[in-house]
Amino acid sequence: MTDAQETAADTALRTTGGGPPDDDVPANGLPIPLLEPREGIPPVVETEDALAEVIAAFAAGRGPVAVDAERASGYRYGQRAYLVQLRREGAGTALIDPVGCPDLSGLGDALAGTEWILHAATQDLPCLRDIGMLPTSLFDTELAGRLAGFPRVGLGAMVESVLGYALEKGHSAVDWSTRPLPEPWLRYAALDVELLVDLRDALEKELDRQGKLEWAHQEFDAIAAAPPAPPRKDPWRRTSGMHKVRRRRQMAVVRELWTARDKVAQRRDVSPGKVLSDAAIVEAALAVPVNVTALMALPGYGHRMGRRQLEQWQAAVDRARALPESELPQPGQQVAGPPPPRAWADKDPAAAARLSAARTAVSALAEELNLPQENLITPDTVRRVCWEPPTPGTPDTVAAALTGYGARPWQVGLVTPLLVEALTAKA
């Protein structure tokens, strides 16, 4: 497309709600609906030949690349990607189907060294990693918004407040494993990357104006360098309503039902919650039914559930009932780290005083800097330093402790003086 064609296209798109705005805020103060991608909805890439063309186009593109992924959370088992959207100057927008093209490592290689722009990067990176895509550098527009002090940092809110455009978000929770994907969903997906580059550029300028750009770069580098999260230990303990389950035998019922449900969900490739709800698991754990008839009387196991299903859930309960005491799960205990803060006053009044002083100081500084406290320093890091303070509590030892807990240099520089003073607080 020539420069003249691009200018004409931009002019036409502004009349239909597409393309980047000329000013940060529209003249009438109202957001402009973003209705269509500037080059229209691209065809979905489903074959290796089509993927090869996209790889060549994006390798030849210019500047950073906007990246997004759509999952089928709540519908399918796991968190795999069912659509990947990309946009880059010189390449346009691409919509790739990871079902038809499950290996995108060639695309990842073609974009090596290119800055990726993602919104809430930690949500999408795991599923992108699974299909061979991992950035070496990135810009997270959600995290940038937090550091810049925006009160609402969802993509729609950011695009509206920063660029003056309104994104249609009606398809954010649909079943992206649906095939073929409906055109309105594809339009929504393409628009999600339409203005990411513009948003990135505007946020970079704002962070630079506030003196926070280096902070952001350190945060982005930490995300890009982070290894994959290890498998969660005892994931069944995260069952919603678990706080009601007190006895070890009841905990064993939760574990057996959760494990049985997970196997069924994985085999059927559906969300575990569609197989059996967390609420139903907890109900069975509290009652420990002795047979199918007793199980049927519980909420979540009514007449709509088939006999075969009821028998498999009762079998899980029976396994828990038959376990010897030595094999029952122990109450959840923190493997490492301080106890819950509510217990500090009784366990260690001096530590409670240190934590109170530290929280007050961190809160005040975060407010002064206009950013969330958890982005200034994680609450867990503050708790750990206050519970077991380094000896001696000098700036060097506190800074070393913060670094050891994963704090970035900008955080260490700002928070160390606060914690050094808080560590001298008396009960």
TrEMBL record:
<dbReference type="Pfam" id="PF01612">
    <property type="entry name" value="DNA_pol_A_exo1"/>
</dbReference>
<dbReference type="InterPro" id="IPR044876">
    <property type="entry name" value="HRDC_dom_sf"/>
</dbReference>
<dbReference type="GO" id="GO:0003676">
    <property type="term" value="F:nucleic acid binding"/>
</dbReference>
<feature type="region of interest" description="Disordered">
    <location>
        <begin position="1"/>
        <end position="27"/>
    </location>
</feature>
<feature type="domain" description="HRDC">
    <location>
        <begin position="247"/>
        <end position="327"/>
    </location>
</feature>
<dbReference type="InterPro" id="IPR036397">
    <property type="entry name" value="RNaseH_sf"/>
</dbReference>
<dbReference type="InterPro" id="IPR002121">
    <property type="entry name" value="HRDC_dom"/>
</dbReference>
<keyword id="KW-0378">Hydrolase</keyword>
<dbReference type="Pfam" id="PF00570">
    <property type="entry name" value="HRDC"/>
</dbReference>
<dbReference type="InterPro" id="IPR002562">
    <property type="entry name" value="3'-5'_exonuclease_dom"/>
</dbReference>
<dbReference type="GO" id="GO:0006139">
    <property type="term" value="P:nucleobase-containing compound metabolic process"/>
</dbReference>
<dbReference type="InterPro" id="IPR012337">
    <property type="entry name" value="RNaseH-like_sf"/>
</dbReference>
<dbReference type="GO" id="GO:0004525">
    <property type="term" value="F:ribonuclease III activity"/>
</dbReference>
<protein>
    <submittedName>
        <fullName>Ribonuclease D</fullName>
        <ecNumber>3.1.26.3</ecNumber>
    </submittedName>
</protein>
<dbReference type="InterPro" id="IPR010997">
    <property type="entry name" value="HRDC-like_sf"/>
</dbReference>
<dbReference type="GO" id="GO:0000166">
    <property type="term" value="F:nucleotide binding"/>
</dbReference>
<dbReference type="GO" id="GO:0008408">
    <property type="term" value="F:3'-5' exonuclease activity"/>
</dbReference>
<dbReference type="Pfam" id="PF18305">
    <property type="entry name" value="DNA_pol_A_exoN"/>
</dbReference>
<dbReference type="InterPro" id="IPR051086">
    <property type="entry name" value="RNase_D-like"/>
</dbReference>
<dbReference type="InterPro" id="IPR041605">
    <property type="entry name" value="Exo_C"/>
</dbReference>
